[in-house]
Amino acid sequence: MANTAVAASTPFLWEGTDRNGKRIKGKSLANDEAQVRADLRRQGVVPTRIKKQSKGLFAGGGKITTGDISIFSRQLATMLAAGIPLVQAFEIVGSGHENAAMQKLILAIKSDVEGGSSLAEALSKQPLYFDDLFVNLVESGEQAGALESLLDKIATYKEKTEAIKKKIKKALTYPAAVLVVAFVVTTILLIFVIPSFEDLFRGFGADLPTFTRMVIDLSAFVRAKGFYIVVIVGSAVATFLYFRKRSRPMRHFLDRMMLKTPIIGPILQKASIARYSRTLSTMFAAGVPLVEALESVAGATGNIVYETGVLQMRDEVATGQRLQQAMENTDLFPNMVIQMIAVGEESGSLDEMSGKVADFYEADVDDAVDNLSSLLEPMIMAILGVLVGGLVVAMYLPIFKLGAVV
């Protein structure tokens, strides 16, 4: 039912008058014009004009990102806190969303809720966008009569985890992007610029410096074998990405290697601990049993090494082991984290202490990423200088020698 609604929904622009006779206009999502009229009448609006929203030349279905889900969570929490009924909140949030795919998703959930499904049931029909953790928290909120509070916790959790992900992406993407640019510039110089100098040097009738000769030979190799190099490298990268996505042992090996990488490794470790603590705090505050919470926490750590460790902890806690001892057995958590969790267990404030650990490590990741960026900038400039500057020097060495002879 939900999937049909997603496929069939259409944005409509409308104009009408409210209960006070004031002219208003807006946008609604519906399967047809009749549904728009019915929805408006329920809201006390008398429609005078309804038309389908025309699609721009480059308009498309759009793509739903984790950021969209995070914003949706906060908007829904804010609407409910303001006393707006759930169905009307979906209508308002969906109508105001610029992403067509997100609009359709919201309408699908709204249709299920109007059909009598609970919010948790409606969300569970969209597993691509709402994971077990999200659905379990919403279900706990509905059962406890505290949906507004739980949605606020979910929104905060999503915002915190999204911030951590963006920080990690920033730390890894910036140097990678600069190195790719350096590689492209170097390739262009080798293919198009160096051959021009080679023709010039051929008329000198003298031996070229060794460094210049090496660069010219490298240029000739790239021009002769460049296509094969691209095919081999492209195939290797595609094969690597294929097996990385589908092979759990390979993912485990790569994630473990990343954790051991200097500079980057400690940041990834802190990020995983921050996600672990934030998720544990949110789940436990929602009243989810610890064993069940750890299963959701495992998938939220973002690293398969920590995921495996948390699942091991879940099995040990299920047999009566204390969480503190189970964490020690994994050898993945610093002593400070273990001791704070131990204090939380003993004082009955595990959610609060987990939240404090998450706050500390999230701030630590922010500082580490900022420091990494400051450290990498001069290093990257040096690499660019050596690559591009080295090629330039190699090409001008014979000219300098010729000038010295003259």
Topology:
Layout (H helix, E strand, L loop, with lengths): L1 H7 L1 E8 L5 E8 L2 H10 L3 E7 L13 H16 L4 H10 L4 H15 L4 H6 L7 H13 L2 H56 L7 H37 L1 H13 L3 H22 L4 H11 L3 H15 L4 H8 L4 H13 L2 H56 L1
Antiparallel strand pairs: 1-2, 1-3
Could you give a short account of the major beta sheet?
Answer: 3 strands, antiparallel
Number of strands: 3
Number of helices: 16
What would the average pLDDT be, to the nearest integer? 82
- List unreliable stretches of 5+ residues: 1-8, 56-60
Helix coverage percent of residues? over 70%
The class by helix and strand makeup works out as: mainly alpha
Shape: flat
Strand content: 5-15%
Write down the Rg.
Answer: 29 Å
Q: Roughly how many Å apart are the termini? A: 85 Å
The helix/strand order is HEEHEHHHHHHHHHHHHHH
Strand order of the largest sheet: 2-1-3
Features:
406 residues; mainly alpha; 3-stranded antiparallel sheet; 16 helices; disordered N terminus
Q: Briefly, what is this?
A:
The chain is mainly α and 406 residues long. It has helices at residues 2-8, 33-42, 66-81, 86-95, 100-114, 119-124, 132-144, 147-202, 210-246, 248-260, 264-285, 290-300, 304-318, 323-330, 335-347, 350-405, and strands at residues 10-17, 23-30, 46-52. It contains 16 helices and three strands.
